Amino acid sequence: MSSTASVAPAAPVTGVEVGPATAAGPRAARKRADRPDGTPRWAELAARATVWTTVPSGLWRLALGVGVPVGFSGELAAVFQNNTPGWGTAYLVALSGLAEFVAFLTLGLVRPWGEVVPSWIPLIGGRTVRPLAAIVPAAIGSTVLTCLGTGALFGGWAEQLSDPEAPQGLAAVIMTLCYLPMVAWGPLVAAVTFAYARRTLGRRR
Question: Which ranges constitute the DSSP H helices of 35-107?
Fold first, then answer.
């Protein structure tokens, strides 16, 4: 007695099911590029770039402060020669340090310490930073810096270099290249501030 076993044909594989993550495409890729706290990758890069905008001019001032000839002549050169090294050096070092410190604060807009005060700070350590306490000063600062940079681009810098005692020739080119990155300081701070405001104020809604 024979029996015939029938086997149902296997269903043909017609394709691979696409899950939601795969279907998301570029949008999912952009989200993966962001940090877990929602900080966009571009804001992180802009904040880092902000710190570097003040470095070349700071190095130029430090060179001036230790007595390196940077191209000044006449009475201006005499003033610098008489006070550097000296109190002029201290002033130039303090000015460069202050500029770099202010630029460094921009990193707080993309770092946890820009939302919660570090615990090692006396009295206020561990407290949550109110968004507007960071947004308002940053917005004002970016506006002032942008206005100064724009003014320098459209005539202000050329007017300073027109002084016959100001650096000329190659010295003027070097000085200009050292200060040129500062033109981007204000717009970069504005962009990072926008990202911070969008992230932090959005959580409060």
Answer: 41-53, 55-65, 74-83, 87-104
Whether the CB-CB separation of 50 and 192 falls below 8 Å is answered with yes
Helix, strand counts (H, E) of the chain: 10, 0
Does residue 129 register a pLDDT over 50? yes
| Closest by CA position to 141, among listed 179, 188, 94 | 188
Structure tokens at 13: 């594989």
Residue 142, both tokens: 């970016």
Give the residues across from 116 on adjacent strands: 128
Cα 67 → chain centroid: 30
Question: What global pTM score does this model have?
Answer: 0.79
Instruction: Tell me: pLDDT of 6 over 50.
Output: no
User: What percentage of the chain exceeds 90 in pLDDT?
Assistant: 71
